[in-house]
Amino acid sequence: MKPETLEILRARWQRLRIYRYQGSVLVDYRILRNFVRIYHIAGAAA
Protein backbone atom coordinates (compact mmCIF):
# COMPACT_ATOMS: atom_id res chain seq x y z
CA MET A 1 0.00 0.00 0.00
CA LYS A 2 1.01 3.59 -0.51
CA PRO A 3 2.25 5.59 2.49
CA GLU A 4 -0.71 7.96 2.06
CA THR A 5 -3.15 5.07 2.42
CA LEU A 6 -1.40 3.80 5.53
CA GLU A 7 -1.61 7.29 7.02
CA ILE A 8 -5.35 7.44 6.30
CA LEU A 9 -5.83 4.05 7.95
CA ARG A 10 -3.81 5.10 10.99
CA ALA A 11 -5.80 8.33 11.39
CA ARG A 12 -9.07 6.44 11.02
CA TRP A 13 -7.97 3.85 13.57
CA GLN A 14 -7.02 6.55 16.09
CA ARG A 15 -10.39 8.25 15.60
CA LEU A 16 -12.15 4.95 16.26
CA ARG A 17 -10.10 4.45 19.43
CA ILE A 18 -11.58 7.67 20.86
CA TYR A 19 -15.04 6.07 20.79
CA ARG A 20 -13.85 2.81 22.30
CA TYR A 21 -16.30 0.75 24.30
CA GLN A 22 -16.48 -2.90 25.31
CA GLY A 23 -16.51 -5.09 22.19
CA SER A 24 -15.54 -2.24 19.86
CA VAL A 25 -12.36 -3.96 18.67
CA LEU A 26 -14.27 -6.35 16.42
CA VAL A 27 -16.34 -3.49 15.01
CA ASP A 28 -13.20 -1.44 14.33
CA TYR A 29 -11.57 -4.43 12.70
CA ARG A 30 -14.53 -4.98 10.39
CA ILE A 31 -14.64 -1.31 9.38
CA LEU A 32 -10.91 -1.23 8.59
CA ARG A 33 -10.99 -4.60 6.83
CA ASN A 34 -13.84 -3.45 4.60
CA PHE A 35 -12.04 -0.17 3.88
CA VAL A 36 -8.89 -2.03 2.81
CA ARG A 37 -10.91 -4.48 0.69
CA ILE A 38 -12.73 -1.64 -1.10
CA TYR A 39 -9.41 0.17 -1.60
CA HIS A 40 -7.89 -2.93 -3.22
CA ILE A 41 -10.92 -3.41 -5.49
CA ALA A 42 -10.78 0.26 -6.54
CA GLY A 43 -7.02 0.01 -7.07
CA ALA A 44 -7.38 -3.11 -9.19
CA ALA A 45 -10.04 -1.45 -11.35
CA ALA A 46 -7.90 1.64 -11.98
Account of the protein in words:
The structure is a single chain. The chain has 46 residues and is mainly alpha-helical. It has one domain (3-45). The protein has 2 helices and no strands. It has helices at 3-18, 24-45. It starts with a helix and ends with a helix.
**N/C terminus separation:** 14 Å
Q: List low-pLDDT spans.
A: none
The helix tally amounts to 2
Number of strands: 0
Question: How do you describe this structure in short?
Answer:
The chain is mostly helical. It is built from two helices and no strands. The mean pLDDT is 75.
List the helices and strands and how they pair.
Elements: H1 3-18, H2 24-45
Protein name: YlcG family protein
Name its key features:
about 45 residues; 2 helices; about 85% helix
